[in-house]
C-alpha cells in the first residue's frame, strides 16, 4: 500500500485549430465523430494549459479539479471517462509489476491554469483535456503513446484528441463501435512546416452562443446538407489537406481551410433552427482576407472560424508584412500586437467599411504559430504540502 507521500506529474498542452472541421457525432457518449478532421497545433508560448496531476492517501477521498483557482465539477461523464480509463491502465500495470506503488485507487487532485483569458472564448477544452490526460498518464507512468492517449482524451472532448500531438494532426474517425480506432495521428511535425503563422482576431461576443456539443447534435438531427458534407465534402478535403501539408503548398492549404470553414458554417445555417456562429465582425474578417489575397494575386492568407465569432487567419512567415502587417495597419493600438515585432503596413486597399466593423468589434489580437505537443515540466502547481499554490 502506498504511504502518505504525494505522487505528482506536470505537463503543458496546446490548443489546436482545425482546418478540416469535426462537426457531428455518431456516438455522443464516446465522442465518435461522423467525419475525420485535421488541425494545426498552436504554440504553447501563446496559448496553453498547464496541469499538475497528483494523488495521495492524505488527500480527501473525492477526486478534485481546480481550473484557474476555481473548483470544477468532476462528476460529469466526460471527466469520469478519462479518470476511469487512465486508472484502469495503471491498475493493469500494478498487477503486472508488484514493485510498483499501488496508486491507481488513490484520490486525484488536478490543478490547471490557462495562460490566456478564458473570457476570450478560445477553444480551451482541447488543451484542457489533453493536459489532464497527459499529466495523469505521466503520474501513472503509463507507457502509452500519444495516439493511445488520444483515444482517452477524445472522450473528454473530441477536439482534445488532436492536442496530444504538435504540428499537423489528423483525427481518423474510425469505424468500430467501441471507438478503439477513432484516434489522432501525426500528419507532419511542426518542424516539417515551421513557417506557419496564425493571427487570431478575438471578437467580443455579446452572449455565449450554442455550445459545440449541443450544436453538432442538432445539425446531425436536422440538416440534410450535413450528410453530403460528411460523405462527400470532408473526405475530399481530408485528402487535399494532407497533400497540401506534405507538399507545404500554402495556396492549396489556404483554399481548403477557407472552403472547410465555409462548409461547416453552411451546415450550421442549414440546421433547424439555424445556428449562426459568424457575426458581422467575422464577415468583415473574411472580407479583409479576400482583399489581402486579391492584392497578392494568390492565396497568402486563410480564415477559419469555429463555434464562435473569433477569426483565425493562417499565413506563412514570408507574408508577415502583407498579412499581419496590413491588418495591424488597419487595427493599430489593439491589445496583443506588442507580443511580436510586426511593422504596420499601409492598409489602404482594404474595404473601408470592413475595417471599421473590425475596429469596433475586435477586442484583441493573438499572434502565434504552429507549435509542439504536450511538454512535461517540473514546474508544479502544488506547494510542498500538496495544496494548490495560491496565485
Ligand atoms: C467547431 O471538441 O468542442 O471546434 O466533442 O462535444 O467536446 P465536443 O466538441 P468540441 O468541438 C469542436 C468543434 C469545432 C471544430 C474542430 O475543432 O474540429
From TrEMBL:
Q: Provide an example Pfam family for this protein.
A: MDD_C
EC number(s) per entry: 4.1.1.33
Q: Which residues form the Mvd1 C-terminal domain?
A: 198-375
- The reply to whether Lipoprotein figures as a keyword in the UniProt entry is no
Recorded catalytic activity of this chain's protein: (R)-5-diphosphomevalonate + ATP = isopentenyl diphosphate + ADP + phosphate + CO2
Swiss-Prot/TrEMBL keywords: ATP-binding, Kinase, Lipid biosynthesis, Lipid metabolism, Lyase, Nucleotide-binding, Steroid biosynthesis, Steroid metabolism, Sterol biosynthesis, Sterol metabolism, Transferase
CC annotations in GO: cytosol
One of this protein's GO BP terms? ergosterol biosynthetic process
Instruction: Tell me the ranges covered by the Diphosphomevalonate decarboxylase-like N-terminal domain, including all copies.
Output: 13-184
Q: If you read the UniProt record, what top EC class would you report for this enzyme, in one word?
A: lyase
Similarity field = Belongs to the diphosphomevalonate decarboxylase family.
Q: What's the protein here called?
A: Diphosphomevalonate decarboxylase
